[in-house]
Amino acid sequence: MTSNLAEQFLLDPDVVFLNHGSFGACPKPVFEDYQRWQLKLERQPVAFLDSRRGLEANLRAARLALAAELGSAPENIAQVTNATTGLNIALQSLPLAEGDEILTTDHEYSALEKTLVFVARRTGARIVVVKVPMPFVSAEAFHEAVLAGITPRTRVLFLSHITSPTALLFPIERLIAEARARGIFSVIDGAHTPGHIPLSLDALGADVYSGNCHKWMMSPKGSAFLHVRPDLQTMIDPLVVSHGWTADNKEPGVRGPLGNSAFIDEIEMQGTRDPSPWLAVPSAIAFRHAHDWWRVAAECRNLAQETAERVRGQFGLDALSSPEFSAPQMVAIPIPPCDPLAIHDALLADYGIEIPVFAWQDRHIARLSCQGYNTRGQMDVLVEALAELFGLRQRHRKLNTA
């Protein structure tokens, strides 16, 4: 890894931070830009938050930069606080009725699983969960499993692009096309995707896609987006009705109070809130370009896969997937049966390692994130710490409950 990249971040040097996937980490120049926007807000709040005096122009500049990075038009992207919010907006707007089916997988993020239950209870729809064949080594097997779950009642296909618990990169392109052909809404959870893999939203063709900028794009927390196909935007209702709402929003071509589409104004114009995280997104994109981040990401992928192989090797456990279906910079590493919280707490207290450890279905997992500030030496610390905690180095044997 490039040795000076850690100096670009604000992370505690006493912590081996291997959990970028949960909340991200913001580089110093991006954080400084974020604080610059916050200072402008506090120096003259009225002027800053007045759309006629610059706010709308600033919001649009961020929207333009993000749209160019993600391969879409700025008119298709609305600012939200996080991907969970964006997906709630979309899922709660869908015209579902009693007996309709929402098709999803057993690898989804728990907050969105709850959202699906909420929507199903309110509408009378039914959730159908497909069990993904594991280990994940075949796109064809994945496609067949999901397609087998489609029935004449299927109205929504809800999939993660990169899964949270298992760090898998789902090959979703064919399924999105198939959903379109069958008149099924495709809703994609892209929380981990922007900045993690190259992404062209228009080419992907999902009806709805929501992603975070604060994770792998490395913008400040509170910056995310909701992308909706132009022909479906009039279907979207805001979660909060505020100044951006127009009673005529279901008519195509109706503009919102700020002159954007009603889709954008209804979601973005919702009373007093700090837009600084969103306004710093162009700075995060510029930082990535300045540091050739796709090259950095490729180095991270190699280091993550190598580390996962070392850990699995010492425990004699199989991988959850072949490398091509693992998220490039994030890998779910199987570990022996244990008390996950005890292992997590011991890693942090005794070794200074911050990494999520949890049980998922019948497996126990340490989910490793590798970002540009991580080093091979830190990976050595993780490998040795896990060996000691599980008794391979005769230490902390009591934590292993196998």
Structure write-up:
It is a single chain. This protein is an alpha/beta fold and 402 residues long. It folds into two domains: 3-28 and 292-399, Aspartate Aminotransferase, domain 1, CATH 3.90.1150.10; 44-287, Aspartate Aminotransferase, domain 2 (3-Layer(aba) Sandwich). It has 15 helices and twelve strands. The protein has helices at residues 20-23, 28-43, 45-49, 55-70, 83-91, 110-123, 139-148, 173-181, 201-204, 262-268, 276-279, 281-290, 293-315, 340-351, 376-389; strands at 16-17, 77-80, 101-105, 126-130, 154-160, 185-190, 208-212, 224-228, 330-335, 353-354, 357-360, 363-369. The strands form three sheets. Strands 2-8-7-6-5-3-4 form a seven-stranded mixed β-sheet, sandwiched between helices. A three-stranded antiparallel β-sheet has the order 9-12-11. The chain has a two-stranded parallel sheet with strand order 1-10. Helix 5 (83-91) runs parallel beside helix 6 and helix 13 packs parallel to helix 15 (376-389). Residues 394-398 have low confidence and may be disordered.
